[in-house]
Amino acid sequence: MKIIARDIPPRAAWALEQAGVHPLLARLYAARGVRAKDELDDGLARLLPPSGDHGLKGIGDAARLLADAMAQNQRLVIVADYDCDGATACAVGVRGLRMLGAQQVDYLVPDRVTDGYGLTPSIARRVKERGADVLITVDNGIASVDGVAEAKALGLTVVVTDHHLPGPALPAADAIVNPNQPGCTFESKSMAGVGVMFYVLLALRAELRARGVFDAATQPKLDPLLTLVALGTVADVVRLDANNRRLVAQGLKRIRAGQMPAGVAALFHAAGRKAPVATTFDFGFALGPRINAAGRLADMTLGIECLLTDDAGRAAELAATLDGINRERREIEGGMREQAMLMAESLFDDSEEPPPAISVFDPDFHEGVVGIVASRIKDKLHRPTFVFAASSAPGKSHELKGSGRSIPGFHLRDALDLVAKRHPGVLLKFGGHAMAAGCTVDADSFDTFEQALAQVAQEWLDASTLTRRIETDGPLSAEYCRADIVDTLHREVWGQGFLPPTFSEEVQIVSQRLVGEAKNHLSIKLMHQGNPVDAIWFGHTEQLPARVLLAFRLDVNEWKGERKVQFLVEGAEVQ
Fold this sequence. Notes:
Elements: E1 2-5, H1 10-18, H2 23-31, H3 59-71, E2 76-79, H4 84-99, E3 105-108, H5 121-129, E4 134-138, H6 145-153, E5 157-161, E6 175-177, H7 193-210, H8 226-235, H9 242-256, H10 262-270, H11 280-297, H12 301-308, H13 312-345, E7 358-361, H14 370-381, E8 385-390, E9 399-405, H15 412-422, E10 427-432, E11 436-442, H16 446-460, H17 463-466, E12 469-472, H18 483-491, E13 503-515, E14 521-528, E15 531-537, E16 547-559, E17 562-573
Parallel strand pairs: 1-12, 2-3, 2-4, 4-5, 5-6, 7-8, 15-17
Antiparallel strand pairs: 8-9, 9-11, 10-11, 13-14, 13-16, 14-15, 16-17
């Protein structure tokens, strides 16, 4: 464990402070690359334009095809993905197309177990059976070469909207909108699938305006969809570049003002969170997991219907169902995590470092939860990790479905690509991003995969990348250790690539004890710059020395009407 303070460019921090930004925020923003106050403008006018010299490649073609289809009253069917990004992208697509005048809009979401990921030939056939004329993918499709070919052979018009990295060949769709496709100069390569679909709707509205369907005064407002765009963007853990931060900020503003779909309001209630003070944390750790749980253990149609309904009673029912499924997911995950961690830790002795990459499989693992468990192991051991479960799809019991999570400096999809090249046939299919990826292997090939991935990690990772590093914003001045400052920080947009503030400094430990039902959290009383502060380190059981360098985030603990600052410990380094 190495705790490192970020560089804070003094000129940038000074310029922001002079422009009226709170001194603490000025320092935090400067450390995250913000150089001028206008970069913090989150107004809709500052969003990158959909079209033009640096617009999204293919977006004009997509808009024209959709406008033509709507003019002919054709049937549009959206093929979604079974995670929160896919669910919100689907809901944005259905709601947005209807707002713009489409009369026939339907959707279909693959089943994680029986269908697998993306637009497969069988999904294309099911879309055709629904009487569709146009198939629109959201948050998938860029790697669906066979599925698109089948859809085209069936006479469907195909519009692919996605954000994942393309494979060696692009599908032969009528239009592809993906900031990561070759030749696309759109600046925000990190947009989530829901953001891409929102941009397609902006372009479609402009096309309909050009055709005289409505003018600037009569056109539908699409900004109510930004609540869903914000939720999907944060839940998919994409990098919050300037454009994504604006999308999220706009969604948060509307939720705090009470302007949100019935399903989002119901999910806030089910999660016990307060919409008037909504934060990105609520999206990532409260609402997102409840929607994701449907795709993991049940049917993502539940999540999508929750986001589509305008009936508050129906929304409450669906949100309660999703909350129940999420509780079940947590129980399954708890047992799996314990077993997987034991398996991972059995790969090395106490005196040894963990292997450069970790792969574990157990016949009893649930394939809907492998990604979460991989993330937990990766967090604890700081190694690229894959967790596999036996496929429960009919006729696929010999296949293992794996989900992986990575550490900085190890591009997981590229690593899988190298494994596939070195060991042809081991990977039946794979895909993903730098930090998260999935793959399918034959059960007999698991050992080969495990060794091959470890070999790639051995070659690509060195001692510094294998050492867990926590980047912090350095010491926290005692004057900012106040509940109102914590509230100010929580209102800002933080997330992947624009990490929430984490501070670090040497503190004196006064007392410490284990708390929680399983006694697996460390409750600490410490002295911070001469002032007593309570702290908690979740999931940590080892005692700390009397003086230690702590990395911590800020939170507020409310007890009997009193609000006190509490440190949430992220890590410790003995000096």
